[in-house]
Amino acid sequence: MQPVTHLHSRTAVLADENIDTDRIIPARFLTTTTREGLGRLCFHDWRYQADGADNPAFPLNRPEARGCAILVAGRNFGCGSSREHAPWALLDYGIRAVLCSEIADIFRGNALKNGLLAIVIDEPEHRWLLRHPGIELAIDVREQFIALPDGGRIRFALEPFARHCLLHGVDQLGYLLQNETAIAHYEQQEQAA
Amino acid sequence: MSARTLFEKIWDAHVVAAETADTPAILYVDLHLVHEVTSPQAFSELRARGLKLRRPDRMLATLDHSTPTLPANADGSRPYASAEAQAQVAQLEANCREFGVELHGWDSAERGIVHVIGPELGATQPGMTIVCGDSHTSTHGAFGALAFGIGTTEVGHVMATQCLLQRRPKTMAIHVDGQLPAGVGAKDLILHIIGSIGVDGGTGHVLEYRGAAIEALSMDERMTVCNMSIEAGARAGLIAPDETTFAWLKGRPRVPQGAAWDAAVTQWRALKSDDGARYDREVRIDAAAVKPTVTYGTHPGMAIALDAPVPAATNAQERRALDYMRSQPGQPMQGTPVDVVFIGSCTNSRLSDLREVARVLRGRHVAAGVRMLVVPGSEAVRRDAEREGLHRVFLAAGAEWRVPGCSMCIAMNGDLAQPGQLVVSTSNRNFEGRQGKGARTVLASPATAAASAIAGCIADPREYLVEVAA
Asked: Which residues in chain B have their CB less than 8 angstroms from residue A74's CB?
């Protein structure tokens, strides 16, 4: 994973609550055996009309939302399945951060492991961001704040290990493999029990 | 040692390295279940890094999501929905051969939905940690195992190290007091619970279901309850193992036998929350107040008794959900015309579910214009059902009897509903488009689904549980 320290972008807003992983990427596209190229399928059934043309009612299809890397989404984003195809599709689509007052557990874990900043913020700030799409934000992962255009800051909590991995591009599998001695010891004790 | 919850006992027994302020715990995984959809990228990662599986003996693979549920063609080929689906299945077969993983594939008499066959084989046991790249892994919590879904990156972690990096979740007790009324089952109960605590009510928590109504449930019913823990956003669901659990597991292929069985049961009896153990949150549910329950919106938390009026939308999201479902505020879901009825999924595809459906269908016929699919959860369920003649009841009623798999629950194998069609489904998710683009899903119990198939509209199963002479 490449280090992720800062992100600067305008925001796009999907205000719906409980945007589930089937809406992020419908299950019928999960027959893939790779993780690449899923951006064109991201939000597929919401984003396209039946004839394949862009759906003008999908907020991210509006001209002002194009190129926005920060998504402000309604509460409980990413609920539903454990498919890592959801963060893969979002990243390939160009989303680098999701800001929300609550993010589903499995999705959040999957996102952070792929360098997608799944960041939980407090409700008042979340409500404000939902009402102000297109605002310029700068996310500082090290210092754990989001800078607003007027100089204000939104602080956020981030699990320390996830933060460390983002900042340094740490490979979590590599980290686990370094614990081979402890794992082998556990297995020996378990066998003896 | 101070009083501990069931969750804490299982967690503590699997900590390889304790969590610190800076690092999560390293948690050992006893059983890793694998299917074709969420594993290929993990196998590829291992191959790219030159890594082996640490414990292939602790893995169990099956084919379920992308597999057709129509029988094989005359030439032995399978009617896959796409070449990509076929290639995905072939890739798991090849990966299991290359890496030495036990696969219950097309030639296995035990193939089936991953969360159905794990328990059937006795691979699922009390006190274990169990993971799978599938959110409904919570099903196995019915046996007092800590079981949860993981992403594909974590699937790779478990393959290479048999471990996961995890922060300890919070705990929530769901006390279900009293007794479920006649004609009301486990599916009604869990829909009622999710409707009560909300679709995100369990986020960050492991739920422990307890109380008289839970203890009275069969293993199949406990699996239905734990299966849908994720639909409340929970990390996992747990039920303490008891005599019901031990009797169900005894003699299954992978459980200890003889003296080792007795020793295991002795250990398993300690797997319950101690008196005085503290939970981060506690909720009480009155079983007697639960009615046949269905969903009316586009997530499982939008659930009400089928004779209760659909609540008015309170925000744009709820309005969108009601519009999509064409649900009418103030009107009950009962009486809504039905196009498709689906019996199946890791929530409700076990023998007792099929018996319940047959009880309602026997001597009756599916309403004109309604399509009904019955998809057993595994080859073992299919065999048992056919031995009892249940398939003849389904076929005589005008339903389709299929080959095991996830089928229309996730609708990625070609089994799907058409845009606008209303599906009464025994599965676990009613998200927009879940059962086909534009399809409208109403989650329900097997009895409610079967009654609705006969009535042609959402119907109260209690009116049909009186048997008719065939």
From this structure: 317
pLDDT at B6 over 80: yes
Which pTM does this prediction carry? 0.97
Best probe of the B interface among A1, A17, A28, by most B CBs < 10 A, is: A28
Give the C-alpha separation, A116 to A103, whole Å. Answer: 13
Instruction: Say yes or no: B233 contacts chain A, CB-CB below 8 A.
Output: yes
Contact A31 B153 (CB under 8 A): no
Tell which of B106, B140, B166 closes a domain.
Answer: B166
From the DSSP assignment, how many helices (H) and strands (E) are in chain B?
15, 19
For B370-382, what is each residue's pLDDT tens digit?
999 999 999 999 9
CB B341 within 8 A of CB B452: yes
Q: How far apart are CA B394 and CA B361, in angstroms?
A: 7
Question: Letter for the amino acid at B76?
Answer: G
- The ipTM estimated for the assembled molecules is 0.97
Q: How many domains in chain B? A: 3
Read off the CATH number of the domain in which B159 is found: 3.30.499.10
What are the chain B neighbours of A84 within 8 Å (beta carbons)?
38, 41, 133, 151-153
Interface mutation vs chain A, best among B14, B15, B37, most A CBs within 10 Å: B37
Test B26 with A17 for CB contact under 8 angstroms. no
Would you state the CATH architecture of domain A6-192?
A: Alpha-Beta Barrel (3.20)
Those residues whose C-beta lies under 8 Å from the C-beta of residue B379, and which sit 6 or more positions away, are B108, B109, B110, B111, B112, B404
Q: Are B240 and B272 in contact (CB under 8 A)?
A: yes
CB contact under 8 A, A18 and B200: yes
**pLDDT band for position B467 (cuts 50, 70, 90):** low
